[in-house]
Amino acid sequence: MKKSVSLIIENSKGELLFFLRDNKETIPYPNRWCLLGGGVDNGETFEQAIKREMLEEIELNLDTFSTFKQYIFSDRIETIFYKKIDLNLTSTLLHEGQKLKFFTKEEVLETNLGFDDNEIMKEFIESNHKSKEHFPTSFLQENLTRAKIDTST
């Protein structure tokens, strides 16, 4: 089964970030608003995939984030991550899609989003998500290893 990742980005006003997909008949959900994200490459973890996708799509170096939920859909397993950050959309480069936009939670619930994003966002908004961001496990392990002090001398 395919694996994918998406990132819910919320700014300090409580608005949520979406991107408008290209208007090409050859892609799924053309000209629709969606969460940022993409597929997980072979040998890649979900955390590695979301970090790569954010660098590719908006040049965001994602160092801290939290996991909202993992969904099992008929065609894929999708892990949804969360990041609270204020992005300046005029200076944020978008490499896939037409444009970025922050939506209020009310606007999100009224918008026909692509993929299964309506289901995901309804659950996110209803949960009143207050997760604390964390460092990915791999980051913590790497830094704990570097921080070990040799006491044999």
Quickly describe the structure:
Helix content is 27%, strand content 27%. It has 153 residues and is of the alpha+beta class. The strands form two sheets. The chain has a four-stranded mixed sheet, with helices on one face. The protein has a three-stranded antiparallel sheet with strand order 3-2-7.
How is this structure best described in words?
- The chain has four helices and seven strands; from the N terminus they run ββββαβββααα.
- The N and C termini lie far apart (52 Å).
- The model is unreliable at 134-153 (pLDDT under 50).
- With 153 residues, the chain is an alpha+beta fold.
- It is globular, with a radius of gyration of 17 Å.
- It has a four-stranded mixed β-sheet, covered by helices on one side. Strands 3-2-7 form a three-stranded antiparallel β-sheet.
- Strand 5 and strand 6 form a beta hairpin.
- The protein has helices at 46-58, 105-110, 117-127, 137-147; strands at 2-10, 16-20, 33-34, 36-39, 66-72, 76-84, 99-103.
- Helices cover 27% and strands 27% of the residues.
Distance between the termini: 52 Å
Q: Number of helical segments?
A: 4
H/E element order: EEEEHEEEHHH
What is the CA-based Rg, rounded?
17 Å
Global mean pLDDT: 88
Residue share in β-strands: 25-35%
- How would you describe the shape? globular
Largest sheet: 4 strands, mixed
Enumerate the spans where pLDDT stays under 50 for 5 or more consecutive residues.
134-153
Strand order, main sheet: write it out: 4-1-6-5
Proportion in helices? 25-40%
The assigned structural class equals alpha+beta
Number of strands: 7
